[in-house]
Design a protein that fits this description.
Elements: E1 2-6, H1 11-28, H2 33-36, E2 47-52, E3 55-66, E4 69-77, H3 86-100, E5 105-111, H4 115-123, E6 127-129, E7 141-147
Parallel strand pairs: 4-5
Antiparallel strand pairs: 1-2, 2-3, 3-4, 5-7, 6-7
Length: 148
């Protein structure tokens, strides 16, 4: 997989985010609308798109929480390319980029109904933590963190 560092105006990233939103809406139904406002990515300069034979198959990004912490966002792999290690590669590339920029902590939120995502993050060294920021009090949210 070829990894491209880009920004949120990248059309392939936007298309992959559309696929992610569709999948989340199917999985969670009306409950997903509570999260939609937290998933808007505007003017983000830390976006990664993964390509297989020049076809976009995976994405992710991060945004700053504070001077030492980032939040991993919009992790997605197209259904046909899952279970091939692409999500692990995207996550690792995001963490490395964040480290290059001087961050030392990564946080993320995922839904409790996404056991495959939870498994990925646990295997990558993330641990469950208290819900933070906009996810405080949202029962379906599972927040995780990792020192990077």
């Amino acid at each position: 997989m070829k990894i491209l560092r880009t920004n949120s105006s990248n059309s392939d990233f936007k298309e992959l985010c559309f696929g992610l939103d569709n999948e989340l809406n199917k999985r969670y139904g009306k409950k997903q609308s509570k999260y939609d406002k937290h998933n808007v990515i505007e003017d983000n300069r830390t976006v990664i798109v993964g390509y297989l034979h020049d076809i976009p198959v995976a994405s992710g990004c991060f945004k700053e929480i504070d001077h030492k912490s980032i939040e991993i966002k919009r992790m997605f792999v197209t259904p046909a390319q899952r279970r091939k290690g692409f999500s692990k590669n995207i996550l690792s590339a995001l963490e490395n980029w964040a480290k290059e920029l001087g961050y030392s902590m990564a946080r993320l939120e995922t839904g409790k109904g996404q056991p495959e995502a939870i498994g990925l993050y646990e295997k990558a060294g993330y641990v469950i933590t208290e819900n933070y920021g906009p996810y405080i009090g949202i029962e379906n949210s599972l927040c995780m963190k990792k020192k990077i």
